[in-house]
């Protein structure tokens, strides 16, 4: 933490202030999930949304505009992170929701589950240095014309914490080329001024990938924890834009452009 | 194991203890009974050597809701909230299997907090290893840190602070102490009690296997090379199961009908059941056949003494069993009724219809004899205290000394350690690891909880009484430095074999010192843990009391951190203005290879005034940064404030007026009761007034600069009357210091350097 | 009948194996100069009841394919035997 | 000569295998009712140069004993073969 400092929240002058409408969020809980309350707090208390927890045995997600798979250690991260959660009943319903164009956001373990489920390409391998890593990182916003990132400026660098042991994004060369070609990369680890240097990459991810979306553009996964960066007293508000973008999209029915 | 020894002796009981058991029972114990006694009367469970001494600690205060005796201590936070906290050691298991040993330490302390009805909100760890030039020490450190992360991260509990020290004294016996904090509404606090004859007793969580049988006894022996052969199967922690257990228990608490809960720790089911029954003044009957097992063919005593992890014992109101089972099943866990509360004060173990043990609860729980062994001041002390520091040459290049000190594994950044711990989860961490104390916000209020764990074994080695007092003072000082008021203490007393008079003397002295400091600072002790027999091949570790201090901040927005914030701010030293104390310093160890002298002096009254003054200054909003002076002394503290500064405030120019004593002692000595703060020029007067009001010495040292250089000069009295000579001693780029500090620990750990 | 399936899960050739490299480095540091390369995978043993060997085989295949290995990163090899009472 | 050693590292019988239990539970939840028990271990392949098979064997043994398996928790089984150019 020492020596890293916030640039100040850029992008939306006040990402929260822009949020006017209300959407309905389902926040999934698998055995071992541990960030569901944090996500709920941000959605409900800070952004005044209608959000509730959904137990992993639920088979119907019809009533939600958006579904969030929060972080944690589903099934203890045993075998491979996300591998077992992927086979739980609620995932069928996540497929259905994705199919219908609902927004799906996977954070950290949620991202791992989405790749295991094939809703997002690639896989998250153990960190290159083999250690679990928690701390502040900077990520560069690659696209803003998506339901998840419209509250940011293109090239904006966000300060958001990570906390994971398996966040090292991998896809084979063809798949990776495809991901890049289609512009599916939304966030890359970078220096505070947006450079893609070796030291700015905390886990060895290919192409510095921190967050991607699916081809259809309604499913996103990211390793950083935006919900941990929504209040100045906790060190950053930069993560709020992800949720604000989603809410805007859901309530205004379109992607919202700032700049 | 010699065939000629009677079983009681093999199990580690003394003859007088065996005779007392026979007397309490009125006959000779069966094997099952004897084995239960051996565990319950082991040092680890019975505190035979420590109880009489621990009574000297102050344990009462207006905020204390629960002192020692339950699973954890509790203090009142106001607004209906209660803070639950406790510390535990897992030294021997970690020395054998660092990853699992440390992981299960975290699991254990979290279950203590959960058993109090609280939600765990934070963890801290206090670690001691031998010098990192040994591969074994690096292996232990890596394993322990990974193990702590493995459990805490998975549970979703942030590890917000801790400490790591290296000293050859811990080469054969590392220390792993883990502290847990939890929050509850006052009315949600649970007790570890069994009451109401007819009420059912359940074991919930994991199945019981043969792991860890004899763990308590193992912790009550010295380690040796031969320990490998006769140790119990290593316990493997299952944080996934631990998380499910936590969630299920909270659901159960909410459902109601819980009479009491206790974690199954050392001594397994026996200890949990007997202690619960003892607190309730009741008897209990357990049927081992009802205990869900992981292995086949377990004997009754194996079931009763297994230390399988992730289990709790619950006493419910009659009729609530089905609901409990349903809740645990929802979380994929076992919940089995294994017995019932009785009114006869007897602990009865059955295997089906057959009674295998019948013991008076009181005897098993409380009947162990207490020992007050001989205490003798160790012979090493005299020559060490008489050490002539004049023998040590004064440095030629102070900048070079500072670089070396800041890179010492005892001072350098601990980021390599805490980056492996999730310290953000739960959205409560306002100040995480890396500063002085951690600060957590309290949901729904402006308030916060500050917490720090501290203890300097080297000081205690040189002077256990003063060293322990310093540990309390320093922990409190750190808590104050983030803007909180110290409230209460939990502690872990890590010592060698108490049957050795020298070790026992250290123990008694340390407890006395801790008690004095806790009284002076108004921070009662609400609990703790004692870990004896920390020796390797006959050599005890440094006596190492670790202090876990909690404090309350009235307003988390008003917190400060060590890093400089603004160029032009004035750097002020509050507290002991002069001091050149070299004894026990990191400087003497790193630069001269010497551990000698006495621990630094401590004026507890000045300490209290200093802390009140710093607290007041922070809450008047005039302090921009604060940092206590600790290992490495004044120069290192200043350097740390530079290194952690905002980019635009990275530098300082200070002038230290030299008082009596050597210059190296004044710059690197570890004189106590000092805090460095920065304030804006316009606020210097207000700070002066506050200092005056609190009768705290104050000295302006210099200012924060923006030029990226660390400049330190001294003022020497000149031969001419009234004049002083300035002399620059250190002038270095902050970046150079930062690199040393950042890489100091990693260089040892990451192959090929940082 | 009881069967025991042994599933070897290994990283695909083109996937970097940080754990393998770490072990390799450690072995060399210990003086095993002859070590050229190390790969670390998983070894999963599972015991199951099934009506026939063919059924056991196909169940085990399915478990490996669906859960035990992630095809993006890993491949697996499976062997099946009759299991006595060994566990 | 080049040799390939394959080392199977498994948890000792009496040691709890949380990972195995979780996989077991997951497989049952996926409908594989016949699954009785799962244990998860490691599969390590290493390639080394050694003057003779006996030497390779004894080196590999030593690596397994000292580094690859943690004797407090695990046991290992080792097989050695001549390696061609397969990696
Ligand atoms: N084992 C650890 N786990 C987590 N945090 C640690 C650990 N060791 C040190 N830290 C953190 O690193 C910082 C510096 O540690 P240390 O040098 O021991 O501080 P101090 O001098 O204040 O006792 C503190 O914030 C502390 O909480
Ligand atoms: Mg400090």
TrEMBL record, chain B:
Name the protein family: Belongs to the FGAMS family.
Identify the InterPro entries for this entry: PRibForGlyAmidine_synth_PurL, PurL_linker, PurM-like_C_dom, PurM-like_C_sf, PurM-like_N, PurM-like_N_sf
- What are the PurM-like N-terminal domain coordinates in residue numbering? 69-183, 434-552
What does it do? Part of the phosphoribosylformylglycinamidine synthase complex involved in the purines biosynthetic pathway. Catalyzes the ATP-dependent conversion of formylglycinamide ribonucleotide (FGAR) and glutamine to yield formylglycinamidine ribonucleotide (FGAM) and glutamate. The FGAM synthase complex is composed of three subunits. PurQ produces an ammonia molecule by converting glutamine to glutamate. PurL transfers the ammonia molecule to FGAR to form FGAM in an ATP-dependent manner.
**Gene Ontology annotations of biological process type:** 'de novo' IMP biosynthetic process
- Gene transcribed to yield this protein: purL
As its record notes, the protein acts as a catalyst of: N(2)-formyl-N(1)-(5-phospho-beta-D-ribosyl)glycinamide + L-glutamine + ATP + H2O = 2-formamido-N(1)-(5-O-phospho-beta-D-ribosyl)acetamidine + L-glutamate + ADP + phosphate + H(+)
Molecular function terms, GO-annotated: ATP binding; magnesium ion binding; phosphoribosylformylglycinamidine synthase activity
Question: Which residues are catalytic?
Answer: 44, 90 (proton acceptor)
Ordered alphabetically, the record's keywords are: ATP-binding, Cytoplasm, Ligase, Magnesium, Metal-binding, Nucleotide-binding, Purine biosynthesis
What is this protein's record name?
Phosphoribosylformylglycinamidine synthase subunit PurL
Pathway it belongs to?
Purine metabolism; IMP biosynthesis via de novo pathway; 5-amino-1-(5-phospho-D-ribosyl)imidazole from N(2)-formyl-N(1)-(5-phospho-D-ribosyl)glycinamide: step 1/2
| CDD domains listed in its UniProt record | PurL_repeat1, PurL_repeat2
TrEMBL record, chains C, D:
Give EC number(s), comma-separated: 6.3.5.3
Show the GO cellular component annotation of the record. cytoplasm
Set out the biological process GO terms recorded for this chain's protein: 'de novo' IMP biosynthetic process
Q: What class of enzyme is it?
A: ligase
Q: Which domain of life is it from?
A: Bacteria
Q: Mind telling me which Pfam families this protein's record contains?
A: PurS
This protein's record includes keyword Nucleotide-binding = yes
Q: Where in the cell is it found?
A: Cytoplasm
Q: What GO molecular-function term can you cite, just one? A: ATP binding
Q: In which pathway does it act?
A: Purine metabolism; IMP biosynthesis via de novo pathway; 5-amino-1-(5-phospho-D-ribosyl)imidazole from N(2)-formyl-N(1)-(5-phospho-D-ribosyl)glycinamide: step 1/2
Primary localization = cytoplasm
Keyword terms, alphabetized? ATP-binding, Cytoplasm, Ligase, Nucleotide-binding, Purine biosynthesis
Q: Which reaction does it catalyse?
A: N(2)-formyl-N(1)-(5-phospho-beta-D-ribosyl)glycinamide + L-glutamine + ATP + H2O = 2-formamido-N(1)-(5-O-phospho-beta-D-ribosyl)acetamidine + L-glutamate + ADP + phosphate + H(+)
Q: Entry's PANTHER family?
A: PHOSPHORIBOSYLFORMYLGLYCINAMIDINE SYNTHASE SUBUNIT PURS (PTHR34696)
Q: What does this protein do?
A: Part of the phosphoribosylformylglycinamidine synthase complex involved in the purines biosynthetic pathway. Catalyzes the ATP-dependent conversion of formylglycinamide ribonucleotide (FGAR) and glutamine to yield formylglycinamidine ribonucleotide (FGAM) and glutamate. The FGAM synthase complex is composed of three subunits. PurQ produces an ammonia molecule by converting glutamine to glutamate. PurL transfers the ammonia molecule to FGAR to form FGAM in an ATP-dependent manner.
Q: Which family does it belong to?
A: Belongs to the PurS family.
Q: How does it assemble?
A: Part of the FGAM synthase complex composed of 1 PurL, 1 PurQ and 2 PurS subunits.
The protein in question is named Phosphoribosylformylglycinamidine synthase subunit PurS
Naturally occurring in which organism (per UniProt): Hydrogenibacillus schlegelii (Bacillus schlegelii)
């Amino acid at each position: 933490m020492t020596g890293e400092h916030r640039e100040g929240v850029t992008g939306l002058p006040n990402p929260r202030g822009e949020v006017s409408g209300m959407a309905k969020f389902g926040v999934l809980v698998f055995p071992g999930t541990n960030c569901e309350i944090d996500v709920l707090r941000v959605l409900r208390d800070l952004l005044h949304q209608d959000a509730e927890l959904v137990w992993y045995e639920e088979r119907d997600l019809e009533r939600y505009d958006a579904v969030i798979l929060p972080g944690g250690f589903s099934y203890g991260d045993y075998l491979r992170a996300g591998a077992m959660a992927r086979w739980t009943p609620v995932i069928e319903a996540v497929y259905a929701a994705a199919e219908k164009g609902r927004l799906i956001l996977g954070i950290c373990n949620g991202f791992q589950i989405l790749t295991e489920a094939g809703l997002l390409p690639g896989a998250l391998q153990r960190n290159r240095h083999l250690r679990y890593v928690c701390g502040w990182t900077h990520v560069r916003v690659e696209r803003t014309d998506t339901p998840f990132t419209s509250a940011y400026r293109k090239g904006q660098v966000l300060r958001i914490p990570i906390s994971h042991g398996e966040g090292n994004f991998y896809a084979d060369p063809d798949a990776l080329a495809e991901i890049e070609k289609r512009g599916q990369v939304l966030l890359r680890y970078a220096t505070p001024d947006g450079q893609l240097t070796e030291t700015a990459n905390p886990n060895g991810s290919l192409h510095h990938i921190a967050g991607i979306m699916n081809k259809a553009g309604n499913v996103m996964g990211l390793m950083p924890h935006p919900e941990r960066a929504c209040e100045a007293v906790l060190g950053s508000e930069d993560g709020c834009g992800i949720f604000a973008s989603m809410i805007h999209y859901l309530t205004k029915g379109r992607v919202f452009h700032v700049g | 194991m010699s065939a000629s020894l009677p079983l009681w002796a093999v199990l580690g009981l003394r003859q007088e203890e065996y005779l007392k058991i026979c007397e309490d029972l009125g006959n000779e114990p069966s094997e099952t009974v004897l084995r239960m006694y051996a565990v319950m009367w082991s040092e680890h469970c019975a505190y035979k050597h420590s109880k009489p001494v621990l009574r000297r600690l102050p344990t009462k205060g207006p905020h204390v809701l629960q002192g020692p005796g339950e699973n954890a201590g509790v203090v009142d936070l106001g607004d209906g909230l209660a803070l639950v906290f406790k510390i535990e050691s897992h030294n021997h298991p970690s020395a054998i299997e660092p990853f699992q040993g440390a992981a299960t330490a975290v699991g254990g302390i979290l279950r203590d907090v959960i058993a109090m009805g609280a939600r765990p909100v934070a963890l801290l760890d206090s670690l001691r290893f031998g010098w990192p030039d040994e591969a074994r020490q690096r292996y232990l450190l890596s394993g322990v840190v990974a193990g702590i992360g493995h459990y805490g991260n998975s549970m979703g509990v942030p590890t917000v602070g801790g400490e790591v020290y290296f000293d050859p004294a811990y080469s054969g016996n590392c220390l792993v102490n883990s502290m847990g904090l939890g929050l509850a509404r006052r009315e949600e606090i649970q007790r570890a009690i069994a009451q109401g004859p007819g009420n059912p007793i359940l074991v919930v969580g994991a199945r019981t296997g043969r792991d860890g049988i004899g763990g308590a006894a193992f912790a009550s022996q010295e380690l040796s090379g031969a320990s490998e052969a006769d140790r119990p199967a290593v316990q493997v922690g299952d944080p996934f199961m631990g998380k499910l257990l936590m969630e299920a228990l909270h659901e159960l608490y909410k459902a109601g009908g819980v009479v009491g809960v206790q974690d199954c720790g050392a001594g397994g089911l026996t200890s949990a059941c007997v202690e619960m029954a003892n607190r309730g003044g009741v008897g209990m009957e357990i049927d081992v056949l009802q205990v869900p097992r992981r292995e086949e063919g377990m004997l009754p005593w194996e079931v009763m003494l297994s230390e399988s992890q992730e289990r709790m014992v619950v006493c419910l109101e009659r009729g609530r069993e089905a609901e409990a089972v349903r809740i645990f099943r929802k979380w994929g866990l076992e919940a089995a009724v294994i017995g019932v509360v009785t009114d006869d004060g007897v602990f009865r173990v059955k295997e089906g219809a057959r009674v295998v043990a019948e013991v008076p609860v009181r005897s098993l729980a409380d009947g162990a004899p207490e020992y007050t062994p001989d205490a003798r001041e160790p012979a090493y002390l005299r020559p060490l205290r008489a050490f002539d520091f004049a023998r040590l040459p004064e440095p030629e290049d102070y900048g070079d000394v500072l670089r070396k000190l800041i890179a010492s594994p005892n001072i350098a950044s601990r980021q390599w350690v805490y980056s492996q711990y999730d310290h953000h989860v739960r959205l409560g961490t306002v100040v995480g690891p890396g500063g002085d104390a951690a600060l957590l916000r309290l949901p729904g209020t402006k308030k916060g909880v500050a917490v720090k764990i501290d203890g300097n074994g080297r000081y205690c080695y040189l002077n256990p009484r003063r060293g322990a007092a310093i540990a309390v003072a320093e922990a409190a000082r750190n808590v104050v430095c983030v803007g909180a008021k110290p409230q209460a203490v939990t502690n872990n007393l890590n010592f060698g074999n108490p049957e050795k008079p020298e070790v026992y003397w250290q123990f008694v002295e340390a407890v006395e010192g801790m008690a004095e400091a806790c009284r002076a600072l108004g921070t009662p002790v609400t609990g703790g843990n004692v870990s004896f027999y920390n020796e390797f091949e006959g050599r005890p570790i440094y006596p190492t009391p670790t202090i876990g201090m909690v404090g309350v901040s009235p307003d988390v927005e008003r917190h400060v951190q060590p890093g400089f914030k603004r160029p032009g701010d004035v750097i002020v030293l509050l507290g002991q203005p002069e001091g050149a104390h070299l004894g026990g310093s990191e400087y003497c160890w790193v630069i001269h290879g010497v551990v000698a002298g006495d621990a630094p002096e401590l004026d507890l009254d000045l300490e209290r005034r200093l802390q009140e003054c710093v607290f007041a200054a922070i809450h008047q909003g005039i302090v921009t940064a604060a940092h206590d002076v600790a290992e490495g002394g004044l120069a290192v503290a200043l350097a740390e404030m530079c290194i952690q500064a905002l980019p635009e405030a990275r530098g300082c120019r200070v002038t230290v007026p030299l008082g009596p004593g050597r210059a190296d002692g004044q710059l690197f000595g570890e004189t106590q009761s000092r805090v460095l703060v920065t304030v804006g020029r316009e606020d210097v007067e207000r700070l002066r007034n506050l200092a005056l009001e609190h009768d705290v010495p104050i000295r302006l040292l210099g200012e924060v600069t923006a030029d990226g250089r660390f400049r330190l000069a001294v003022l020497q009295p000149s031969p001419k009357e009234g004049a002083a000579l300035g002399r620059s001693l250190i002038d270095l780029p902050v970046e150079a210091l930062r690199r040393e500090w950042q890489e100091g620990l990693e260089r040892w750990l990451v192959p090929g350097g940082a | 009948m009881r069967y025991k399936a042994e599933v070897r899960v290994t990283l695909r050739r083109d996937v970097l194996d940080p754990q393998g490299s770490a072990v390799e480095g450690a072995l060399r540091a210990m003086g095993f100069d002859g070590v050229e390369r190390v790969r670390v995978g998983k070894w999963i043993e599972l015991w199951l009841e099934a009506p026939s060997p063919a059924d056991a085989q196909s169940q085990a295949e399915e478990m490996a394919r669906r859960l035990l290995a992630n095809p993006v990163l890993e491949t697996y090899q499976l062997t099946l035997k009759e299991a006595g009472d060994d566990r």
